[in-house]
Fold this protein.
Amino acid sequence: MSAKKKWTLIGLGAAAVLLVPWMAVLAVTLPGRTTVDHWPVAWIGLDVLMAAGCAATALLGLRADPRARLTASATASTAVLDAWFDITTAGTGTPLLQAVGCAVAEGALAGACVYLALGKGRCGARVRSS
């Protein structure tokens, strides 16, 4: 392992440790309720990221480009985040049931992306022309 990679990994480990007290600070200082001025932009933005990730993964994967693993990984992360925020920001009753339904679909998308990101060999296959 190169020294640069080792120090990068040590830095990531340190970030994980430092985030623990930060989470404790947030837990005691964040308000229980808030008003968001750009609520639609936040939600649409997540969906734009997922659509772009799906498109990029499909295009790269169909070209057997190994970078499809990177876009698949990023898309999986975005889908999981979207599902998390769907559920944690939903009201009770029907809105929560709808959020869970969306989260199931986003979980399936994330699973497909993880499958592509971790699959053996190159992500995708070359399209054969006749």
Q: What stands out?
A: The two ends are 45 Å apart (CA to CA). The helical segments are 3-29, 39-62, 68-88, 94-118. The mean pLDDT is 92.
